[in-house]
Amino acid sequence: MTAHDAFTIEPWGLCEQSLDLDVLARAESVFALSNGHVGMRANLDEGEPHGLPGTYLNGVFELRPLPYAEAAYGQPESGQSVINVTNGKIIRLLVDDEPFDLRYGDLHEHQRRLDFRDGLLKRSALWTSPAGRTVRVTSTRLVSLTQRAVAAVSYEVEPVDGPARIVLQSELVANEQLPSANGDPRASAVLEAPLVAEHHAHNGAKAVLVHQTRFSNLRVAATMDHIVECDSPFQGETETEPDHARYSVTTVLKKGQKLRLVKFIAYGWSAARSLPAVRDQVAAALTAARFTGWDGLVEEQRQYLQEFWARSDIEVDGDVELQQAVRFALFHVLQAGARTEERAIPAKGLTGPGYDGHCFWDTETFVLPVLTYCLPDAVAQALRWRYTTLPMARERAAQLGLAGAVFPWRTIRGEECSGYWPAGTAAFHIGADIARAVERYVRATGDAGFERDFGMEILVETARMWRSLGHHDAEGRFRIDGVTGPDEYSSIADNNVYTNLMAQANLRAAADAATRHLHEAAALGVNTEEMAQWRDAAAAMYIPYDEKLGVHPQADGFTNHEMWDFENTPAEKYPLLLHFPYYDLYRKQVVKQADLVLAMQVRGDAFTAEQKSRNFAYYERLTVRDSSLSACTQAVIAAEVGHLDLAYDYLAEAALMDLHDLGGNTRDGLHMASLAGACISLVAGFGGLRDHDEHLVFRPRLPSGLSRVAFAMRLRGNLVLHVAITRAEATYTLREGEAIKLVHDEEELVVTADKPVSRPIPRPVPLERLHQPPGREPARRHAQSGPTVASVDPTGMHEGE
Amino acid sequence: MTAHDAFTIEPWGLCEQSLDLDVLARAESVFALSNGHVGMRANLDEGEPHGLPGTYLNGVFELRPLPYAEAAYGQPESGQSVINVTNGKIIRLLVDDEPFDLRYGDLHEHQRRLDFRDGLLKRSALWTSPAGRTVRVTSTRLVSLTQRAVAAVSYEVEPVDGPARIVLQSELVANEQLPSANGDPRASAVLEAPLVAEHHAHNGAKAVLVHQTRFSNLRVAATMDHIVECDSPFQGETETEPDHARYSVTTVLKKGQKLRLVKFIAYGWSAARSLPAVRDQVAAALTAARFTGWDGLVEEQRQYLQEFWARSDIEVDGDVELQQAVRFALFHVLQAGARTEERAIPAKGLTGPGYDGHCFWDTETFVLPVLTYCLPDAVAQALRWRYTTLPMARERAAQLGLAGAVFPWRTIRGEECSGYWPAGTAAFHIGADIARAVERYVRATGDAGFERDFGMEILVETARMWRSLGHHDAEGRFRIDGVTGPDEYSSIADNNVYTNLMAQANLRAAADAATRHLHEAAALGVNTEEMAQWRDAAAAMYIPYDEKLGVHPQADGFTNHEMWDFENTPAEKYPLLLHFPYYDLYRKQVVKQADLVLAMQVRGDAFTAEQKSRNFAYYERLTVRDSSLSACTQAVIAAEVGHLDLAYDYLAEAALMDLHDLGGNTRDGLHMASLAGACISLVAGFGGLRDHDEHLVFRPRLPSGLSRVAFAMRLRGNLVLHVAITRAEATYTLREGEAIKLVHDEEELVVTADKPVSRPIPRPVPLERLHQPPGREPARRHAQSGPTVASVDPTGMHEGE
User: Fold this and answer.
1) Do B221 and B321 have their domain in common?
2) What pTM, to 2 d.p., does this model score?
3) Is B9 helix (H, G, I), strand (E, B) or coil?
4) Residue B488 catalytic?
5) Which terminus in chain A has less CB density within 10 A, N or C?
């Protein structure tokens, strides 16, 4: 069975028709539920078998030492790893004293289904125990999008062929044993028994466990309560131990009788509050959840999602699998960002322990551009989290001898946790990526209060960083030397084009914001001289260009480097970073992920159309996509320069990253940036959306495989713009709000309420297909009209980031 | 007391007039004895107090893990650390049951003296025990230069104010407790109890201990025997335990009576041989030593050194302290290299555990150029060690995707042990440094057999490495991208001038050697096509040049980088690497150690005189000398471009590195490269010797502080050339051999036996003094005629490498 046979193809949901024990961990990621605060992998209710047990609370981590073979100044010595907190999902079942364990007995049916419209993970199984009794088990699990601390499970069991003695054990388990790490540097460090018990208690069907992490000193509380419905008399009992709470229900069911258990779970954590405070906080959340009731939670969830989809859906006609994948992507991006509330959005969301649960530039560069137009409050929250980390970023800047703030390359709480500085600290572009996200959010929403109170300080401190990092050379050019751009197969280069263009935008944005908020800027010590310095540095920014080749080198000297020997690099040597040393990757022309091409997307204004075409063709030959952060960007620029079918192929790769497990590491969690990137591929690629100027600009073009793409966007608080694109025309409809000005191709349009505006789309000029490194071409995607699987995965495609 | 008050100033020796317990470890390094195989720090005979106990056997190390915060392909995972082997130096004394411990009682006199002409460390003390008995203790220690496995001590005690009961305990102690590490990354990792006992035995006054290292599985044997002379009846007794052997002598001496103990010690180790074999090997060495006897060993030592000095002395008139320092330097370089015999010469010799006992490029670049002209056999041995490591170097090259051989940046046995690749593996120049040493040795000695049997394979395999590391760009230039040159404040740069010039020489040397030994080259798979490829790559080698500034950038783009803010870098922030992050050092114009300037020394033929002057002035402003591998090179080029007094200052810094503890880390061992560099400063600096062409070239010039410099050189086996330089003229005398052709200034001379040739030296043109980074100027050295101390150490000068 290939990775993607596992799921049916349908537009609004994902259904797994049978259970494959070999790839349990992958399904646990794909079906994970989260609201951005609480995350639950789709571990089976009964706990075992499992691929990778995981329950996460955003911001809960443990410290661990970062070792170095050779010490050096400024290397972070303490790392942060997400930990598996108290597992509240577990409901064990005994049928006539036989544990319900799918590894034993006969499993006749097993189905799991996630519907993107209701946010419920439904499971049903028909199982005959080794002793011969057959039961039907159904369960529904939710992590509430409306009640941040709350998850709930409805669990039902029914004997179908005769009477059975049934015991249900609903549990809270702390310090679950985890499978040992597999040595892949990309997987999380497994932290054994990170929780130290502080408190355990029970009362009726309620129980609570409170723990503290050993080194990071975070207090974590988990509590549960239960409602039992039974067609037969039953008895309940609650017990607690330091690492374990259990509520047991016992009954005897006749054939056709049912036992149903509704379990409410509430989580809370704090770095500051006392044990009674945290304990009471989760008790309150639990009480509220129980008051809402199971049906109430389900209904809230449905309404929340209904509203979300009404304003944010992306429709894809002509390719059902892609339609499914894009909604899957949007759903998980929503889950990752919905309720983070001043916490980070990690690279894997809360779907797995990959990358130690760290947040990278992925968030601001890929995830927030999507959330900006569908869940802008989540963007404000995510950026407010960055704002709260400014003191740490200032301290890091001081340690590095820089002004302003240096945001960490990877972190959970805010401290730099990168143990390899050439691909960590040296990637200073993260500061500009965050600044760009601030700028975009403010422009899209008009949230001047956010800009004034939070955004400007981020812009100012990052601009100060750039001004101190760069310098003017003898000819007056402003240079930024010795930094690492997005492409991690180059490092420590001078004048990385992406970095310099993003820094330029950052410097200008800071000056502009300070101009709008002169008073508040003055409070940050900004005066007009400093603003002028930023504008001058931006104006003098040096952007290298290779006149001979007529392309932009990714950084100084890049186009002089030796070509990677792509012809003699076999498929099994990818991702390259696992088979070749950094020194070799760094000094050759080979690109892990879009770098100059990303610059052409986010700073499209800095390139001519002709440059974009030439640059794109040049870098296509060099880009191996050993990172999941590449295909979507290549899709966007491929579409812009007219390679629409190639864009389509890249879009599919980005969208199917996890459903087809293209990186081979979906088990460790979903690739949020790639999922968000699929949405970007459609909206910025085929929709041609660019949002770096005052008005939104669209330049829609469809590939041959798609008949229609449509999407909605929330703008300036109360506007909802709907864009529908066919091969012949684009139609702009203002679904909510009064009027909006936008640009279609080169034409300025004003779209007003209830008056859709349509404009024709020119027929695309056929172009010769571009070359990629041999064996690294994206799979060709052909148009599909029904639930079949036609695409072929690139052989051996694994992700390297 | 400052560092250098400790020693008297005299031309042929070093004398410490009193004991300073605070700086014991420094004196232990300075007075260390070694023959390149066995090394003994100058720990006091009685073992305590000590600074850093140390007895080393060249090649005996323990493995230890090299940890990384983030894993990557090709990172070495196992490191090697020199270990303190069984201590055979210890002779404890009890006076009326009071241990002779200088921390107690009254020490009236304590003197240690090392004479460079006899190689004996003599000690005498006059001490009154806490109980009031006064004794005179004298001891003499030697590590034999003629009997490689052997050390010996003559120890004498005499009560001077009345009778005393005397016990002497002569010991072998394995797994000595060491002081804990101080956290300085430059100090050795302390390995606790690395030796596992295998065998212990005694017979008469003899005892032996055999151990194995735990992980590296090296077998180490130490044995001792004793002769007692006593004016009074005495009793001897021997005991052994697994980690301890003791021979005790007891007697009662009257006032003026003496007890003398002569201790013979022999060491051996093997990675392959059995316990009986290693045990018997040391027993044989011990027997031979005892047969030679104490006086015999002393006489052999004296003769060996007499011969050495006759052919290798460097005379410095006008500055006694410098004369002393230069002989100190030569003596220790001799000790480090004399009897290595297919083992490495570590950066610290066998004088301390600094840098984990590793061998770096220091050996080939600084130490071997000196040994080539005074102890050429030692050079052949050191290069034969490199030859024996070729299989490891080929394996490393294959791992790195390169042809030929990649020698390790740091190692004991031959495997790469660098845990930070940007300043380790990326410093590929070590391959060319080794090739250059081969070339120099063969040219100086005419040892064609060595070239054919060992040297050529090194040249061929390093040439192959360069050919695969570099590539031709579109204009046909041969580029070497992404490497690190000598200066460790830059990293991973394109076309480092030093590296490219050295690679060019390496490629040519390989082609030339293959031409001389066509048959043997063919056996290595070399054909004329490959030789042509090497020559072509060498001819096309790209050497960047900054036309605007009229200087060579150290590497591509270097002169565009921001200047380090020297003005605002206070003295206490040096060495910079302990106070600033690498990213910051790498991207700015700041130089840790001569890089481009070293290129001008070793490849002087590649620069015009004008370029040398301009380059030197440019890099003087940037070079902070945070490495001890810099002053000597700056001295050489300063002299060449006419800054003779500046050269004198740098010479003094190199020469006094350890006697004045300028780096603050002499405690961890002596800086062999700096000591050798002092000799280079004189010979290549004031002598103006260049040896990269067929004939030796001299261009002698003296600074105002020196009235005469003279040195002898061994050449082509049986020639000894003596060069004497005054301010007015240079005189070339052939002391041994028939005739030699050489170049003085631009003039070719033939010097024949017994016919000294004198040539006038032009009066130097006064030049304006160059600028160095503020606070990093070398101390000005004024002419001295007697034993006074006039120089001032640069404040806070510490070494960073």
Assistant:
1) no
2) 0.93
3) coil
4) yes
5) N
